[in-house]
Amino acid sequence: MADQEKDQESRAEEFLQVFKKGAEFTTDLLKENERLRYQNLQIEEQLKILNSSAGEGAPSEELLKKIKKLEDEKTEIINRIKRVEEENIDFANRYVEIENENNMLANLYIASYQLHSTLDFKEVLQVILEIVINLIGAEEFSILLLDEKTTKLEAVASEGLSNSEIPSFELGEGIVGEMAKTGDNYFIDELAGYERDFNHPLVCIPLKIKEHVIGVIVIYKLLVQKEKFNDVDYELFTLLAGHAATAIFSSKLYTDSERKLNTIQGFIDLMTK
């Protein structure tokens, strides 16, 4: 748990450093662009003066050389301005991407705190559903947990579907069962034209505590505005799987222990009456 938090803090710090460097680089580009434009205006003024002088009589060879030199400098500056502007546009796009990634990472931090703020099993499942809807943009999906006795994956919570619609999967059976067995993430190759198939989901993310898989999150449909997965989504899937698994495991242990304690307490009360 502590290692996961340290890893999250490290990732956030990396994003923050890139974000700061990006802001500084953008400022430098704008200053360079302004300097080049000013230099270009100065050259244009000099060219006007020289052309005006040349118009009064036959231009000397020296004057022609100056004009040619200034024309070359002007061309070079214009080309440099274009390059700077292209770099500025490219970096502005990357700046927006990083800002979005930072926002998503911040949202994940908030979500992870929500996950670990309760030991109620049903509340934990509800928080996970909300995270997958809001951060991933999924419309139809389910959380399946592994029954260690039967080695089957059973739906315990769903969105856009009922638990009874989701089939159970044997460990190692099909894509869902295989991902639960290996602990690997699965993403469909092509989103376009996909139709819901319980045996072939869009996404299957194992819920792992270290290398031990306790269940999976399977996604069958994305929200309309979600046309594809971004790079940050794959990062979110991995981070979410770890936090969700820990929260589910902890809440189940707590719920089971509370149930046993209540049973024991009821037995003691019965015996003492």
Description:
The mean pLDDT is 79. The chain is α+β, with helices and mostly antiparallel strands and 273 residues long. The radius of gyration is 31 Å and the shape is elongated. It has a 6-stranded antiparallel sheet with strand order 3-2-1-6-5-4, sandwiched between helices. It contains 5 helices and 6 strands; from the N terminus they run αααβββαβββα.
Brief summary:
About 65% of the residues lie in helices and about 15% in strands. It is an alpha+beta fold and about 270 residues long.
Work out the radius of gyration.
Answer: 31 Å
Indicate the CATH architecture of the largest domain.
Answer: 2-Layer Sandwich
Number of strands: 6
Q: Tally the helices: what do you get?
A: 5
**Text of the CATH class of the largest domain:** Alpha Beta
Name the strands of the widest sheet in spatial order.
Answer: 3-2-1-6-5-4
Mean pLDDT: 79
CATH topology of the largest domain: Beta-Lactamase
Overall 3D form: elongated
Which H/E pattern describes the elements?
A: HHHEEEHEEEH
Q: In percent, how much strand structure appears in the residues?
A: 5-15%
Structural class: alpha+beta
List the uncertain runs: none
Furnish the topology, listing elements before pairings:
Elements (H helix, E strand, L loop, with lengths): L1 H54 L5 H55 L5 H16 L1 E10 L4 E8 L9 E2 L3 H9 L3 E2 L15 E7 L2 E11 L8 H42 L1
Helix pairs in contact: 1-2, 2-3, 2-5, 3-5
